[in-house]
Amino acid sequence: MSDLRIRKQALQLEELFHDGGPANGLPQRKLAMVTVIANPFAGRYEPDILPFVETLKPLGRAMAQRMVDMLGGDPAQVQGYGKGAIAGENGELEHAALWHEPGGWGMREVLGTARAIVPSTKKLGGAGTRLDVPVTHINASYVRSHYDAMEVGLNDAPRANELALMLVMTTGPRPHARVGGLRVQDISAHDGLR
Questions:
Q1: What domains appear along the chain, each with residue ranges and CATH number?
Q2: Cross-referenced InterPro entries, in alphabetical order (predicted)?
Q3: For 8-50, how does the pLDDT look when each residue is reduced to its tens digit (9 = 90+)?
Q4: Which residues contact 111 (CB under 8 A, 6 or more apart)?
Q5: What is the C-alpha to C-alpha distance for residues 146 and 135, in angstroms, rounded to an integer?
C-alpha cells in the first residue's frame, strides 16, 4: 500500500436492538469502514487506469480484516456485505468504479466462504457527500431478509482530488425481517444467488 496516499480512515459501528418490535437478545451490527485516498487521476483523463486496481487490492484486504477484527475476529459472524466509492469533484465515476474488484475480492478473501457478488454503488460528490451502500447476504443474493443498506460518509471527504472507498459488513438480517423470500436456512444452490 506504499503507493497509496491515505489521508484518513474511519470506522462506524451501529448496533440495532429492535426496529419498533420486540427487542432482540443480540443486536444486529452494521459496520462501515471508509478510507480516503488521493485520486492519482484527478483533474485529467487517463485512458489506462486499470493498473491501479492492483495497487488497491492490499487496501481491500486490510480494510476487510480490520472490520472482522472489530466485530470480534470470527469471519463466520458476518452475514451481509456491500461496498461503495465516491470520487471527488475532479475525478470521474470510472475512478470510483476501480474499487469494485479490490473491495469485493478483499472482503470475500477475508471471509473465506462468501459466494455472492458484493453489491456496490458509486457516485461523484464533494466533501460531506453520503452514500447508501447496499447490502446482501454473503452466500446468496436472493436472501431477502438481508437486503439492506448503510448510509456512509465523512464530513470532510472526499475532497476534490480524493476517493472515498467504503466497505460494509452486517452480522444478521434486518430486525424483524418478515417479507418472505429465500431464507438463510434454505440456501441450496451455492452459486451465490440461491
A1: 6-186 (3.30.1330.110)
A2: AA_synth_put, BB2672
A3: 999 999 999 888 888 877 889 999 999 999 999 999 999 999 9
A4: 64, 68, 75, 78, 81, 138
A5: 7
